[in-house]
Structure formats: C-alpha cells, structure tokens
Specification:
The chain has 127 residues and is mainly alpha-helical. The chain has one domain. The protein has a 3-stranded antiparallel β-sheet with strand order 1-2-3, with helices on one face. Strand 1 and strand 2 form a beta hairpin. The longest helix has 20 residues. The chain is globular, with a radius of gyration of 14 Å.
Length: 127
C-alpha cells in the first residue's frame, strides 16, 4: 500500500474539517456534501499547481462551500456571538493562510477554528 501524499492528506483534512462544521450546523444534506466534493476537486488542481498552498486548502474549501451555500440557500454559518440585529454569517480568516478560523467581523472575535463549529454553538440552518 502506497503512503498518502501530502497533497491528498491536505485535501482529506480539508474535507473532514468542513464536513464537521456542516454537521455541527445541521446542514450536511447530500446536496451540500456534494458542494464540498466539488470544492475539493477544484482545489486539488489548485494545489497541484502550487504545492506550497496545501496548508491553505481547509480555509479555501470552507470559503468555497460558504459561497456556494449563499448562492443556493442563504448565509452559513450564522454568527453565534451576536444575539441581536440581523443574522449574519461568519467569515474565514485568514482568507489565504494557515490555521483558518471562523470569525465574527462585527464583533471582531474568533469564534472557532474551521472544523470546530460544534464547540462554538453556531446556528443550525442557513438563512
């Protein structure tokens, strides 16, 4: 059995982290999981072109899925920090960097690492 390449390890880790956040938000329906798979397939090509970017893949996949969900269903993940006002989505920071986190831009706080929304109490459904 051949060892898994660093590229594949990064892609599998990104998939697992984003799926964990989708499960935490109770939005891991089959069509949404397909969005994750589409992003991972597109990011595979991207990382093959720029192997040094492998550590950025989790944040990029999270952003891809967030953008696709916004187009089809609404904002995700909803901010669990701000209790009043209009519901708003969290952002991924850094936009292109290692150790991506979900952050509330309004409150200026880190909410959770990508893959850890289940511990942050993020809202259940996109809106």
């Amino acid at each position: 059995m051949d060892p898994i390449s660093p590229l594949e390890q990064a892609l599998h880790a990104a998939r697992a982290l984003v799926l964990a956040d989708l499960v935490a938000g109770q939005v891991a329906e089959p069509d949404v999981v397909s969005l994750v798979e589409e992003s991972v397939a597109q990011r595979r090509w991207w990382v093959e072109q720029w192997p040094e970017g492998a550590e950025f893949v989790a944040g990029l996949v999270a952003q891809d899925v967030q953008d696709a969900l916004l187009e089809r269903y609404g904002r995700w993940p909803l901010c669990p920090v701000c209790g009043s006002g209009n519901p708003h989505a969290l952002d991924v920071e850094p936009e292109l960097g290692p150790d991506p986190h979900w952050v509330c831009g309004k409150a200026g706080v880190k909410v959770a690492a990508v893959g850890s929304l289940g511990t942050a109490g993020a809202g259940p459904r996109p809106s």
